[in-house]
Amino acid sequence: MQIARQVIGLLATVVLWVGFAFLTVLTLATLRTRYPEWDARLSIHPYTTSVSGSDIMQPENAVWTPVLSRTPTSQRWVVTPTVRPTLMPQPSNTAIPQSLISTSLPVMLCNGRAPSFEVGDTAVVDFNRGSALRILNSAVGGAMQTLAQAYDNDLLSIIDGPICADNIWYWLVIYRIRDEQYTGWASETDARDNPIMCTVDMPECRR
Amino acid sequence: MFQPLSLDDLLRQHVRSYAVWPEPLQALLKRSVLLTLLTEVGLLLAFVFVPPNVWTLLVVQEQGGFFLVGGDYLNTITAFGYQALPYLVLLNLVMLFVTLMILTLTLFMTMPVPILMHRLAAAHVFPTMLSWGSLLVLAVCFAVAIVINLVIWVIIIWLTLTVIWVFLSSLGNN
User: Fold this and answer.
1) B9: contact with A, CB 8 A cutoff
2) Of A163, A158, A150, A157, which Cα lies nearest the Cα of A196?
3) Mean pLDDT (chain B, rounded)
4) Fewer CB atoms inside 10 Å of the end CB: C or N, chain B?
5) Among B60, B90, B110, whose Cβ lies nearest the Cβ of A6?
6) A50-53: Cβ within 8 A, 24+ apart
């Protein structure tokens, strides 16, 4: 009886160690994803980075232009491929319909969603429930990074981005309020994928 | 050369001290180890699977709604908690390792172990209690803010209804 209990105990311990290994990998991966400063701490080569090939679709006739950007105060540089590839003219005997070209272009997705804006656009904050959109010093790091809060119908000038952080598109925007001006990161949608930033043409885009 | 040996020395050499005899963990200690294991795994799973937006964006952006007072105070707490979370998680990961070591050496608490393991099993509960205690403090802060705001809302609604009632009463008297 005692031996049977010990065998069961041994099996349970083995299962727990396997679970521990799995949980450790999962936890460290989550830490590195959510806390960029921990990424450098946990990495063996903190000053090198890699881009997964599966994350980038490279069509034959497209040229990617990486944009090197960083947050206003952070020393961490982020390489962001541009959303729209530049098409190189290809000699061809047959004309390619424009609709086919546009549908074949690769689109960067964040949580399955393509960005709704381009650099240079102006966005309108849409909050009808008295809430506010935080303008953050860094796209990651949470509320501690807040520079200012933008309210319903406030205008944001998009100057860079987007960056996909925590499954949300973030844009580097300029927010002017009275005599003050803030440059920081603002989320395009909320966590439930409802838009917060709308186009000027449709300022009430929130569902 | 033959050395005479007293019975006392003979006993000391061949019988281990009663104090260091291996012994199975007590029932209370077993329960505390299992509870610690569950809480450590629970916190790690929560960290991995609960989206960070739930802890930051949603609360942060809901100002001006239910929270009439204490919104900034809650934001500060949330932000502090979010920044402290990685340290708590790593602490839990290390403590989970210690828990598994205890469970391995005791063959899931079926084997007798030396007194040192008993002490380790008792001591390793405290770091986990610390991390859960800090989460509890956050939860209490939230609860206090919610209760205060609820009371304010009740007072506002009560005052509004009283004013309406007085107004309607004065109309009835006229």
Assistant:
1) no
2) A150
3) 82
4) N
5) B110
6) A51/A79
Q: Which residue has the higher pLDDT, B68 or A62?
A: B68
Q: Average pLDDT in the A31-47 region?
A: 63
- CATH topology (fold) of A122-199: SH3 type barrels. (2.30.30)
Q: Do A190 and B75 touch (CB under 8 A)?
A: no
Note whether A143 contacts B75, CB cutoff 8 Å.
yes
Tell whether B50 is within 8 A of chain A (Cβ).
Answer: no
Tokens for B35, please give them: 């509870």
Can you give the three-state secondary structure of B51-115, one letter per residue?
CHHHHCHHHHCCECCCECCCHHHHHHHHHHHHHHHHHHHHHHHHHHHHHHHHHHHCCCCCCCECH
Kindly report which listed range (A8-12, A81-85, A117-121, B81-85) carries the lowest average pLDDT score. A81-85
| Interface ipTM | 0.71
Full domain range(s) for residue B115: 24-146
pLDDT of residue B21 exceeding 60, the answer is yes
Mean pLDDT of B9-37: 80
Against a cut of 0.80, is the pTM above it? Answer: no
Contact A146, B57 (CB under 8 A): no
């939860």: which residue's tokens? Answer: B139
Count of structural domains, chain B? 1
- The reply to whether residue B86 touches residue A35, judged by beta carbons under 8 angstroms, is yes
